[in-house]
Write a structure and sequence with these properties.
CATH class: Alpha Beta
Number of strands: 4
Distance between the termini: 41 Å
Number of helices: 7
Largest sheet: 4 strands, antiparallel
Radius of gyration: 18 Å
Order of helices and strands: HHEHHEHEHEH
Strand content: 5-15%
CATH architecture: 3-Layer(aba) Sandwich
Helix content: 25-40%
Bound molecules: flavin mononucleotide
Strand order of the largest sheet: 1-2-4-3
CATH superfamily: NADH Oxidase
């Protein structure tokens, strides 16, 4: 297993925070090794404890482990640019969110928000375990719905790949250059006390 670059060498928080937030990033280099069942379940366990409206737990995860026939099915959902590095992942996953409330069947306006919380829990757990997680919008959403038989009351939110860290030198050249932890705009461009304005980035 390759060693992950230390994100803390590339990133600095402007205000004190839990170091895990800086440690998590989205490498593409993965080793092609599998994960154990227990490692996989720890990731989904982390997602399980995300907050949600009415404790709806709208998120659902459909996944394929690389050592099963499902893996190719999930790989085939991805855009070619993502397939190029995801073929070395240990697990590919589609995130779903239930669009309606269980108690009354009415639309739940925060189903995507809550599913995003669950994904981030999982991503942070992955970082804590020295593994790699990488979210993806670059896949065929409708194909995912059809191939994976997703019921209408669930939104297809995103995909992600999880794996053990790999060797960046084995990535295609254009991806190799991007294989480092990214920065962020200053917090002042993200927050505004009161109505929209001030220093908020457009
Ligand atoms: C929902 C979502 C979709 C993304 N889609 C892709 C994608 O299709 N392909 C890709 O290479 N990276 C994708 N990314 C990774 C982002 O580019 C990455 O998270 C962002 O640049 C911030 O970098 P960091 O995660 O390393 O902090 C996606 C991330 C998220 C959360």
């Amino acid at each position: 297993m390759s060693k992950l670059p230390n994100a803390e060498e590339h990133r600095k928080a402007d205000y004190p925070i839990e170091p895990l937030f800086i440690k998590r990033w989205s490498p593409r280099a993965m080793s092609g090794e599998s994960l154990s069942d227990s490692e996989i379940m720890s990731l989904f366990e982390a997602a399980r404890w995300a907050p949600s409206t009415y404790n709806e737990q709208e998120w659902r995860f459909l996944y394929g482990r690389r050592e099963t026939a499902h893996f190719q099915t999930f790989l085939d959902l991805l855009m070619e640019t993502n397939q190029a590095w995801c073929k070395h992942a240990a697990l590919l996953c589609v995130v779903l969110a239930r669009k309606v409330f269980t108690h009354n069947g009415k639309p739940n306006p925060v189903h995507l928000f809550d599913a995003g919380s669950a994904w981030e829990n999982l991503a942070l757990q992955t970082a804590r375990m020295g593994l790699v997680a990488h979210g993806m919008a670059g896949f065929h959403f409708e194909k995912a719905r059809t191939v994976l038989k997703v019921p209408d009351e669930f939104a297809v939110c995103a995909m992600f790949a999880v794996g053990r860290p790999g060797n960046p030198d084995e990535l295609p050249a254009e991806l190799r250059e991007r294989e480092k932890p990214s920065g962020r705009r200053p917090v002042q461009q993200t927050v505004c006390e009161g109505p929209f304005g001030g220093t908020l980035a457009r």
